[in-house]
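B., you asked whether I could sanity-check this one before it goes into the benchmark set. Here's the sequence:
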Amino acid sequence: MVFDFLQPISTSVEEYIATLSNQTLGKKVVFHTQTDFPVLDNVAIAIITVNEFRGSEKDNDDFSFDDFRKQFYSLFPGNWNTTIVDLGTIEAGASIEDTYFVVKSLMTELIKKQIIPVVIGGTQDLTYPMYRGYDNLDQMVNLVSVDNQFDFSKENKLDSESYLSKIIVEEPNNLFNFSNLGFQTYFNSQEEIDLIEKLYFEAYRLGEVSNNIAVAEPVFRDADLVSVDMQSVQSSYSGNFDVFNPNGFTGKEICALTRYAGISDKVTSFGIFNFNPNGNEVVLTAQMLWYFIEGFCFRSHEYPFGTKESYIKYIVPIEDEELIFYKSNKTERWWIEIPFLTNVNNKLKRNTLLPCTHEDYLAACEQEIPERWWKAQRRNIV
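And here's what the prediction gave me:
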């Protein structure tokens, strides 16, 4: 049983939670303790910490997630009505591949139970086994990474700065789309930027997202797996001065992004990586997780649409195409249809809706084909 690999929270954390107010998160969450393991019926979110830092050539023995837990569980919940469990820690295996196997197996089990695994790492190469957790679930996967670089590798290796190459190349290839939010051009070679375009993936520069944080919302609305690299955050906000980043997202911006991830009806797994759980970064990381759960509690469950009364359909003739838009009556958010094409091999086996913005609809009315729709069309044709 994969749950046997999970280590309970420490006695120190248990004792700390006992001292907290009854209104805090620490008194609302069910814990894997030395004596009890949570019952997983009707659970919505499962928090797991992973003590695996070999992807960045660090020693795992130096880290503990006690400070993170104490910071997070001392926060007060919002108006939440959801069941959260803390399953404890996956300790590093004899090899890094052993850790990957446990993360992958745990992902599969939890997603099958319709529980969202929230993985607090560890290094960002843990995104790879999280992605592999979808292998037996018979679906294409959309991965969104909040990161200042793309994490490609020129060599055949897997670490925190090269996991994306492994995801793209390795069979079975379940990846339908990869989107990056917050890349900084000087951290990425021109070949890598060109490759993103060539594969019809999406990348949004830091300035583009910071200037209008709402551009990220449709990207998250289409995501299955979200991976956040804490090195995408300015050091003055994250508290990480070991790896100094003068540029990056502010604390407010990264929390807005994790809330968008939580509010997406489609997101089924979430991870925060590349931070020092013994350092100042635990303060912002705890607040980011709070905002993810806050977003989750306000999911609208509007897609897929149940009845015609749920939406307004707009048909826009453009060149030799007809673009079909849908606007939700519940939230006024927009989608555009990716048609199923006959006579070609489609990765998606039916007509599919792609999240978009009202601006995409207005641009289509001016005879401009939305770039996200065009790229999705190209990706869909095998």
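One thing to flag: The first strand starts at residue 6 and ends at 7. Otherwise nothing jumped out at me.
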